[in-house]
């Protein structure tokens, strides 16, 4: 149930249908719902969260380069 709730919170639900829509004759092609109406779409990401993760990834890259250079210095020039 936890995974289901997590997925449920990350998607936008399709347009809710009224009782009159559910009683339509779906044998006619024009009465069928379109793919855009039925599709599950992910919720858009928060811009602040995207920016935060990009900054953290850059800091992580800088830290990794720092560690690699210090380790290389210790190995080759003790």
Q: Describe it for me?
A:
- The chain has 78 residues and is mainly α.
- The chain folds into 2 domains: 1-43, no CATH class; 45-78.
- The chain has helices at residues 2-10, 19-22, 35-38, 47-76, and strands at 11-12, 41-42.
- It has a two-stranded antiparallel ribbon with strand order 1-2.
- The radius of gyration is 25 Å and the shape is rod-shaped.
- The model has no long low-confidence stretch (mean pLDDT 82).
Short note summarizing the structure:
The chain has 78 residues and is mostly helical.
Which secondary structure elements does this structure contain, and how are they paired or packed?
Layout: H1 2-10, E1 11-12, H2 19-22, H3 35-38, E2 41-42, H4 47-76
Antiparallel strand pairs: 1-2
């Amino acid at each position: 149930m936890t995974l289901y709730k997590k997925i449920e919170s990350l998607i936008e639900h399709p347009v809710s249908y009224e009782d009159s829509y559910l009683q339509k004759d779906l044998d006619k092609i024009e009465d069928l719902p379109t793919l855009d109406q039925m599709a599950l779409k992910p919720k858009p990401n928060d811009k602040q969260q995207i920016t935060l993760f990009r900054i953290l990834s850059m800091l992580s890259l800088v830290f990794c380069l720092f560690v690699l250079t210090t380790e290389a210095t210790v190995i080759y020039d003790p």
